């Protein structure tokens, strides 16, 4: 009986240790900040327990003209299913969305 309890206990410990520490379905917000008063741009950032993070800021360009537009700059990162951390830096402005990352072809 002691042997059976020991085997069951060991199996339970191994299964708990083998399970991922966290996943996106159970992710919790670790950090969050937002600055947006509705004029002249914004800024925000967050990070979650599954390793996902994002920062973004925008500025209003050519305010009050026909060419008024937001210019956005930011980055995000996440851990892929293969365990690799992917990082994407980007700009979005009058020239469109322009991502850069080690895994993105140029």
Describe the structure.
By secondary structure, the protein is of the alpha+beta class. Helix content is 16%, strand content 45%. It has one helix spanning 2-18, and strands at 29-35, 42-48, 53-61, 69-79, 85-93, 96-100. The protein has a 6-stranded antiparallel beta sheet with strand order 1-2-3-4-5-6, with no helix packed on it. The longest helix is centred in the first third of the chain and has 17 residues, at 2-18. Mean pLDDT is 83; it is low at 6-19.
Oligomer: single chain
Please tell me what the overall shape is: flat
Mean pLDDT: 83
Number of helices: 1
**End-to-end separation:** 63 Å
Fraction of residues in helix: 10-25%
Spatial sequence of strands, sheet with the most strands:
1-2-3-4-5-6
Strand content: over 45%
The SSE string, one letter per element, is HEEEEEE
What is the tally of beta strands?
Answer: 6
Low-confidence stretches: 6-19
Specify the biggest β-sheet.
6 strands, antiparallel
Structural class: alpha+beta
Task: Compute the CA-based radius of gyration.
Answer: 22 Å
Outline of the structure:
With 106 residues, the chain is an alpha+beta fold. It is 16% helix and 45% strand. Mean pLDDT is 83; it is low at 6-19.
Descriptive labels:
single chain, 106 residues, alpha+beta, six-stranded antiparallel β-sheet, 6 strands, flat
SSE layout and pairings?
Blueprint: H1 2-18, E1 29-35, E2 42-48, E3 53-61, E4 69-79, E5 85-93, E6 96-100
Antiparallel strand pairs: 1-2, 2-3, 3-4, 4-5, 5-6
């Amino acid at each position: 009986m002691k042997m059976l309890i020991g085997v069951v206990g060991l199996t339970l410990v191994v299964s708990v240790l083998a399970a991922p520490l966290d996943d996106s379905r159970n992710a919790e917000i670790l950090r969050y900040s937002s600055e947006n008063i509705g004029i002249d741009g914004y800024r925000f950032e967050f990070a979650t327990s599954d390793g996902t993070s994002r920062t973004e800021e925008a500025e209003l360009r050519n305010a009050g003209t026909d060419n008024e537009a937001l210019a956005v700059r930011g980055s995000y990162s996440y851990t892929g299913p293969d365990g690799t951390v992917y990082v994407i830096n980007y700009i979005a402005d009058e020239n469109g969305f322009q991502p850069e990352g080690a895994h993105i072809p140029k």
